[in-house]
Design goal:
Residues 1-24 are annotated as: Disordered. The chain is mainly alpha-helical and 243 residues long. Helices cover 57% and strands 6% of the residues. The structure holds 2-acetamido-2-deoxy-beta-D-glucopyranose (2 copies).
Length: 243
């Protein structure tokens, strides 16, 4: 054993100054960027796998589309009322605005927006969702208000939905945005982000909103293989009752 080797400096200070630095600044920067990229990619992959497992474990949301309840329009009082089923609504003389219980989006303004923006609303809301990263829920609310025009109550439901996605589906949805996945493949399967949203955040959203596109009988830009999921009890002409 030679302990002296450890303590004796191998090179003098002068020698060191003359040697070029082992890593130039730009090389260090490149390596740092690469490590950052690899780390972020790993976080994204692991995070989205964890979220995927939560989605698999979540129960079906089909209940919200199979309930016989409907949201009817009481034209005398210009209000919406939940009925246990469509025949009860017609017995009361009320037209059906959408399937399921009434909520904050159960009104002419919001359902009309669903109808008029059916090709673009998913894209617009994905864009508004990205505002949450820097501006939080206030920025999301303002984005929906400006770009979509929901009533404030309905706007709150959409904003809360985005904040839920941020908590439960953020890695899955970031992955979708970064890889440019479409809403679904031709087979009607939802992409992972929309499936995560539907399974983990959909129930709270539907309870808040009452009306979404499927429940309003509107075929949206999110293709569905199962047309049974689209409400068929909507009465033509209910809209004029609320104006
Ligand atoms: C609708 O609900 C009423 C009251 O619960 C019930 O008596 C009736 O059988 C239901 N109708 C249908 C078609 O399910
Ligand atoms: C959507 O718009 C079309 C055409 O403008 C109309 O025929 C249809 O009844 C509307 N549907 C709803 C649910 O508002």
């Amino acid at each position: 054993m030679n302990l002296e080797m450890d303590s004796a400096p191998m090179v003098s200070e002068q020698d060191e100054e003359q040697k070029p630095a082992p890593w130039s600044r730009s090389k260090k920067c490149g390596i740092f960027s690469l490590l950052l990229f690899v780390t972020l990619t790993l976080v994204l992959l692991i995070g989205s796998e964890v979220e995927k497992a939560n989605v698999r474990a979540a129960s079906s949301t089909l209940y919200f589309y199979e309930t016989p309840a409907v949201c009817g329009v009481d034209s005398t009082n210009k209000a919406v009322v939940t009925h246990v089923n469509a025949s009860e609504a017609s017995k009361m003389g009320n037209l059906v605005a959408h399937c399921g219980d009434c909520g904050f989006c159960s009104n002419y303004n919001d359902i009309n927006i669903y109808n008029e923006t059916k090709e673009t609303l998913t894209k617009t809301s994905t864009n508004c969702a990205t505002k949450a990263f820097l501006g939080g829920s206030d920025a999301v609310f303002d984005c929906f208000k400006e770009d979509v025009g929901f009533t404030d109550g309905c706007n709150d439901c959409w904003t809360e939905n985005v904040m839920c996605d941020m908590k439960k589906c953020v890695f899955t949805c970031l992955k979708m945005i970064l890889t440019g996945q479409r809403n679904n493949g031709g087979d009607g399967e939802l992409n992972d982000c929309l499936l995560c949203d539907e399974k983990l955040c959909g129930p709270a959203f539907i309870e808040c909103a009452g009306a979404n596109r499927r429940r309003s009988g509107i075929v949206s830009d999110i293709g569905r293989d199962d047309l049974n999921e689209i409400c068929t009890s909507v009465d033509d002409g209910w809209r004029w009752d609320l104006e």
